[in-house]
């Protein structure tokens, strides 16, 4: 059984924009994303969003704008029967070299402390190499989706690292995780590759 599900935001839950999501109108959820969150919510583990938002550190929007986007996201998720138990945001500019901006694992470590998680029993669903690296840095199982801009790189990565689980989208990742959890009830099985 897993301890928690970490989720990336842009490119995983919603359409990534080259010019950043700056308002609730620009938060366009990917097809099936809400339904996927709804089904994952049947698992009795925390679902935690882990997102880099350098849009704040770059001075394009302020923290309040990102908070408003996340309040709106919460409302949509709740209305469709899902939940997000926490949202961790790195607001820093890449040049700040903070410990929280993925690929650094700072947000995962903070969540592990807050929710008392064994990170080796957590999964991280994301769409980028930095999600993969953050997960690997703390022993989380990476589950990668092809809905972001790094689809090609992820396919190469999955070829070189057979423990990577690569799925078409969050919907497929959720279905895989639900099946995995049902399978592992009562026994501590190793991760099974979906490939
Ligand atoms: Mg992403
Ligand atoms: Zn940071």
Short description:
This protein is 37% helix and 14% strand. By secondary structure, it is an alpha/beta fold.
Can you describe what's shown?
This protein is α/β, with parallel strands linked by helices. The protein has one domain: HAD superfamily/HAD-like (Rossmann fold), CATH 3.40.50.1000. The chain has helices at residues 33-40, 54-57, 63-79, 106-115, 129-137, 151-160, 170-184; strands at 4-7, 47-52, 86-90, 122-126, 141-145, 165-167. Helix 6 links the parallel strand 5 (141-145) and strand 6. The chain is globular and about 45 Å long. The mean pLDDT is 94. The structure holds magnesium ion and zinc ion. Magnesium ion is lined by residues 8, 10-12, 126-128, 148.
Which ions and ligands are bound to the chains?
Answer: magnesium ion, zinc ion
Order of strands in the sheet with most strands: 3-2-1-4-5-6
How many structural domains does the protein architecture include? Answer: 1
Q: What is the chains' assembly state?
A: single chain
From the 3D structure, determine the CATH topology: Rossmann fold
Radius of gyration: 16 Å
Beta-strand portion reads 5-15%
The helix tally amounts to 7
Which blocks of ≥5 consecutive residues have pLDDT under 50? none
- Portion in helices: 25-40%
Question: Could you say which overall geometry the principal axes of the C-alpha atoms support?
Answer: globular
CATH class annotation = Alpha Beta
Number of DSSP-assigned strands: 6
User: What sequence of helices (H) and strands (E) makes up the elements?
Assistant: EHEHHEHEHEHEH
N-C termini distance: 21 Å
Label the CATH architecture.
3-Layer(aba) Sandwich
Structural class: alpha/beta
The CATH superfamily name is HAD superfamily/HAD-like
* Residue-averaged pLDDT: 94
